[in-house]
Known about the structure:
Blueprint: H1 8-15, H2 24-32, E1 35-39, E2 44-46, E3 54-60, E4 63-68, E5 74-80, E6 85-86, E7 100-103, E8 107-113, H3 114-123, H4 125-154
Helix pairs in contact: 1-2, 3-4
Amino acid sequence: MEELEAGLAGDVLARCEFFRDFDDELLAEITSRSNERFFDTGEMVFQESHEALDLYVVVTGRVGLMVTLPNGHEIKVLDKSPTEPFGWTCLAEPGRYVATARCLRETALVEVPAAVLEEIVERDPRQGLQLMRHVAAAAVAWIADLRMQLTAALD
């Protein structure tokens, strides 16, 4: 994997739940200011507790989100598949990733800088509100999934 097929990143962002409500012009802007990233199986995208600078959307492949338990064991809490976003904590205080993201197979991602999204929130409060509603929904889902995984791990 060296480069995404022309238009694929924009298509993936358009189908991503975080950006579904955005108009074509705004999606084109986000796509043009984003990066394509490619990872091998097992490669880390980001590490838990590190500064969160980017939001990611899976284009191809699969990403596992792992949390480290107090005993040092790492458990997979979620899998992310094509069109699914992760790394949303780049838009929430304190701006740190709450999990480690590791590629479960060869993976292509769209990396959207948080600074780009913050500009949109400030420039277009209506679109910003929609984006932040999706971030809040992701946080609620994350807590529910994490609770379920931790309960299973402690049994």
